[in-house]
Specification:
The protein is α/β, with parallel strands linked by helices. 24% of the residues lie in helices and 28% in strands. It contains 16 helices and 27 strands. Strands 1, 2, 3, 4, 5, 14, 15 and 16 form an eight-stranded mixed sheet that branches. Strands 18-17-20-19-22-21-23-24 form an eight-stranded mixed sheet, with helices on both faces. Strands 6-7-8-9-10 form a five-stranded parallel sheet, with helices on one face. The longest helix has 15 residues.
Length: 544
């Protein structure tokens, strides 16, 4: 067929085709058989489709994403992102792994077979994220080794335990030896410690938040994933890194995007639009979204519309807006198959709702307060003089934060947080990276308790409580994903957000809430044990 001696299945005529190898456009025909590109040029086929000069680019690739963070199962995630031009995602299922262990990874592999989206997985490397933050499971080197060689398993997921890497921790090094492709996660690491980290074969980073850090990691040999999620928006700051040379070492990642953001703003297509707005030449942005990503993961069967590669591509409009008109997977135009009910997964949910008597912030003097940073998942430590009896302090936006153990019916920890801007009410969620305990923030103990109770009623979910009103979206799959169609999830999120918008002006407060307990990102966090200082990697009291 490639020689033209036998007809192809389909010939696409008159395409203005983007070639990511030289970042130029070719007006050409191309042939496809059995879902594979046969070649470009003058071919005959059993079927011909005239594209009439439409612009065609390879299928878009997300270099790093947690599908669970969309609040959708893999099949619904595919239904939502494929129309945006995405044909491949590199997913790290460490959210469900923290809930259900190896069974959670198997669940995501099985559910991925229900979608035309090509989902490739990285095996979670840090479950739990830290030894003290035990969620619902533990995944050790032997558990990881069992996934080696499996179809749709590419490598080891983000190595968040960078202290364990640079200190030579034995079990960490056992994990690093299993796969050749290893994802990184080392916010703020620099100098000799960065050298020691990269030296172990860790080849990518998605935690860069400024150009100097990104450039240092690029020069150290890391592939940079420019992240643009619901909360973590780093693309604008990192855009100046891209030129004709560095583009081969950079790609896009969404990391964490709720279903409503995917629905309203898009996926990698949204990253491309923003990259162009931030000064990246369109052709370089297309390269980042296709070939740069596939090369990083040695996926040489995609990333370009060229001989021997998957016929995954999308047709875009002729304007500068970058709108995807159609998506083809394996040479076939994607048509929405409709909702496929997901399978169920067994998980522990044994939460003891706090009592008001135990929620008091005891003490007075200089308190350590978590300060959220808009557009980042980083937090800052503030030292503020106050009296625990006068919290919440709405005038100064200092609220109470609570994290409840949801696995063993244990206790809960309390701390102080600034930046949510709540004037009334409370919000709570069982999506709480990475252990996924139940986390809540509010302006009164009564409303915090009510929001937590709403989450508990569905064995996991997202809830808001304000006076006599409450709204909740249950998460039936592991307490972190809904089993509803994505359209219903978007509608339910809108209903909750309608209530929350009357409580605060902060955009995406639930996403900020979900990162309050993430103890591998500086500086201060809150766990079911209480306040945690990432710099000292230890539990600390609220008051000095």
């Amino acid at each position: 067929m490639a020689l033209g001696k036998a007809p192809a299945d389909i010939v696409f005529l008159n395409a203005k085709l983007f070639c990511p190898f030289d970042c130029k456009w070719d007006l050409c025909d191309f042939a496809v058989s059995d879902g594979i590109v046969i070649g470009k040029g003058d071919y005959s086929g059993r079927e011909e489709i005239d594209l009439e000069g439409a612009r065609v680019i390879p299928g878009l690739i997300d270099s790093h994403v947690h599908i669970e963070s969309s609040l959708l199962t893999p099949s619904e995630y595919g239904r939502l992102v494929i129309p945006h031009g995405t044909t491949t995602v590199i997913a790290d299922p460490h959210e469900i792994a923290n809930v259900a262990g190896s069974a959670g990874i198997e669940y995501m592999l099985a559910e991925a077979r229900k979608t035309e989206l090509n989902i490739e997985y990285m095996v979670p490397s840090c479950v739990p994220a830290t030894p003290a933050d035990m969620g619902g499971a533990l995944i050790g080197p032997e558990d990881i080794r069992r996934f080696s060689g499996r179809r749709h398993i590419l490598g080891l997921g983000e190595m968040m335990n960078y202290p364990g890497v640079i200190s030579g921790q034995d079990d960490v090094y056992e994990k690093l030896e299993i796969f050749d492709i290893i994802g990184g996660h080392c916010p703020g690491l620099t100098g000799k410690e960065l050298n020691a980290y990269v030296m172990q074969g860790i080849g990518s980073e998605h935690e860069c938040t400024n150009i100097s850090g990104a450039r240092e990691k690029l020069k150290a040999g890391m592939h940079i994933f420019m992240r643009e999620g619901s909360t973590e928006k780093n693309l604008k700051a990192l855009a100046p890194l891209i030129d004709e040379i560095t583009v081969s070492r950079c790609s896009f990642a969404t990391d964490d995007r709720h279903a409503d953001m995917l629905y309203n703003s898009g996926h990698i297509d949204d990253c491309i639009r923003k990259a162009i707005d931030y000064g990246i030449r369109p052709e370089l942005a297309y390269r980042m979204a296709t070939l740069s990503a596939s090369d990083r993961f040695h996926l040489y069967d995609r990333g370009a519309v060229s001989p021997g590669r998957r016929a995954d591509f999308c047709i875009i409009d002729d304007s500068d807006k970058f709108e995807v008109r159609k998506t083809y997977v394996g040479g076939k135009e994607f048509t929405d198959p409709g909702h496929t009910p997901p399978g169920r997964i067994k998980y522990d949910f044994n939460l003891r709702v706090p009592e008001k008597s135990g929620m008091r912030i005891k003490g007075a003097g200089t308190a350590k307060v978590i300060s959220i940073v808009e557009g980042e998942i980083l937090t800052k430590r503030l030292d503020i003089k106050l009296d625990g009896d006068f919290v919440p302090d709405l005038e100064n936006d200092i609220l109470k934060a609570v994290v409840c153990d949801r696995y063993r019916g244990g206790g809960f920890g309390t701390g102080l947080v600034k930046g949510f801007g709540l004037k009334r009410g409370a919000i709570a969620s069982s999506v709480s990276h990475d252990c996924h305990n139940v986390v809540a923030v509010g302006t009164s103990d009564e409303e915090i308790i009510e929001a937590i109770r709403c989450v508990a009623s569905g064995r996991g979910g997202m809830a808001a409580a304000c006076g006599e009103r409450s709204a909740v979206l249950p998460f039936e799959c592991g307490g972190i994903m809904s089993d509803l169609p994505y359209e219903s999830v978007v509608d339910e999120l809108a209903r909750i957000n309608e209530l929350v918008e009357k409580m605060t002006s902060l955009k995406d407060p639930f996403m900020y809430l979900s990162f309050l307990a993430l103890t591998v990102i500086p500086e201060l966090r809150i766990t079911d044990r209480g306040l945690f200082d990432v710099s000292s990697f230890s539990d600390v009291p609220v008051f000095d």
